[in-house]
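Input set for joint prediction.
Command: fold jointly, output tokens.
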Amino acid sequence: MAERGESSEAVMLKKTEEEKLRKGKMIVGDESKAGYEEEGKKVKLVTSDGVTMEVEISIVKEMEIIQTFIGATDTDDSFIFPISNVSSHILNQIIELVKGEYDQELAKKLSHDELKEILVAANYLNMKTLFHFIATAIANVIQNKSVEFVRDFFGIVNDFTEEEEAELRKTNAWAFEGVDED
Amino acid sequence: MRRVLRVAIIIRALSYCCHLFQPLVNIFCLKASQAESMSHDLTSAVDPTSTESRMEAEEDKWSDLPHELLSKIAGELGLMDFLSFRCVCKDWHIASSKVSHEDKSSKSEPWLLVYEGEGSQCSLHSSKHKRYISHIQELEGAACLASHEGWLLLFREGSLFFFCPFSKAKIELPNCPITEVTDHIAAFSSAPTAQDCSVVVLNQLNAFELQLFMLCRGENAWSKHSYAGYPFKRMRTAVFYKEKEFHFLDEGDGLVSFDASESPQWKSFVVRVQESESTPSDVVLNYVISKNFFQRHNNERSGNLRFLEANDSISTVGTTVPRHTGNFDLLIGSERIEAPKQSESRHLKGVWIQPKYCYVPPDQTW
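tokens >
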């Protein structure tokens, strides 16, 4: 245990020293061998519904939040990362999207709930490519649709008052004509 | 001893990281033995937990997404879809309220806004051959003098103002120096929200005299500058060149420059296509000029995609398209198309505009 009188700064200092040591080792070590070892390696993630999933390191590498930890600790296989905001279902979807090299065709099969949860998860896990991909997929759903269609598709309740809505339609009136009827 | 110390270090590092990465808050890093005991807890309490989380998930609605995420989605939309997005619900509206939005899909091709049609109706032709209709009060009886970066400079009822037809943002200019618009042309250096924006309005008094009014952002009084010189042809197009220099192009190959950088200076030029043997006195412009952009685009369109009906007359105001051809901007000139039968024709006005939603903070004035 950290000794009672030890201040957090002191702990941080020790951590930094440890990191320096580790970095020192990495420089000495054979880089190509290190890369080889990482291939096929899996990281255990515990999802919000309590499922432990082994995820390939190549996918985990896109999750910058996990990378921060892998970078900050000398991980071994026994480390488990609980990701309390992501369900196993959504994590599986994410894995498929990453493996499918972000094909917009795959996004078309997702429900609006899945789109939303993947967006939230991508933000939470700090997966930049996935986030941009899913934001684009959602934008594609909205494209050329009427406001009514968008509300309906995403299950959004119109919370404007009648007056507000009338005013909005007046100012954004371009939006309500010449759109595709779906 | 060592193991426990390491956990303390990790947690310290974690709280440190939280400042950098907000989503990190809920992540804990545990050794396997600890995680196992935790997952036992989870299993024993599986029913209440999952019901609760399911209920939470149901309450987690699209409208409740953080505005930061919503605005990222809005940023991916074309201009018209962006306007729709703003009308979906209050949260989506707020999330897209305080940003300017540019139509990325247009690839900097300008759109054409035609006004003064029947019953003050405006029609907007996107670069993807779509047509939108609207009534815009600000354009009723207005004359557009210039168009730049999504902003129009309009003259209406004795006043000059900037107007964005997509956000309906309006910035009034003080002490309008003109009482009516006849053959006036104008240009402005940047969006009127930019600190260093300056506006010039040029009036051609006769074949020999030009009169110019200039106003810089934050000023109240227009400065007046005159230029007398060679017989000028009719001045058609005004454009911002650089720093405080503006160019005025006549309907032939004449160009007059006005530079207000230090003591205001006028110069006359003849425009010609750049050849290999340019002399040291030549000025190479940073823009290429298209004097029949409207006519060419109208002819390319067929049927009801055309801008004009058979007997329409139109006068159009051009704009500048940044870096249209390599490093060169494209200057679209002003044009006038006369219908064959003048007496029966409709007289329309048109302006080329960048498809951009311009946001202005509520407290901003000129």
